[in-house]
Design goal:
There is one protein chain. The chain has 92 residues and is mainly alpha-helical. Helix content is 73%, strand content 0%. The protein contains 5 helices and no strands. Helix 2 crosses helix 4. The longest helix has 32 residues.
Length: 92
Amino acid sequence: MSSRRSRQQSGSTRISDDQIIELVSKLRQLVPEIRNRRSDKVSASKVLQETCNYIRGLHREVDDLSERLAQLLATIDTESAEAAIIRSLLNQ
């Protein structure tokens, strides 16, 4: 498999097997679904699958929060103190 990977990546920056192991390990620590598991024996493919699911969930959360913010902004007076607070938060 590594020979296939090196052929596919000719001309581009190659990532060593050790670097892949390190990156997967970092993902294990970052993704709550994996981090909270009792067993450390999670395959790299499962880590990548759970990472993708986690990122999709974060995107949905951002979309939901954006929608809620748009609804909130539509209901308040643009010159009110609440609007000023929202503007200052958005500008951070």
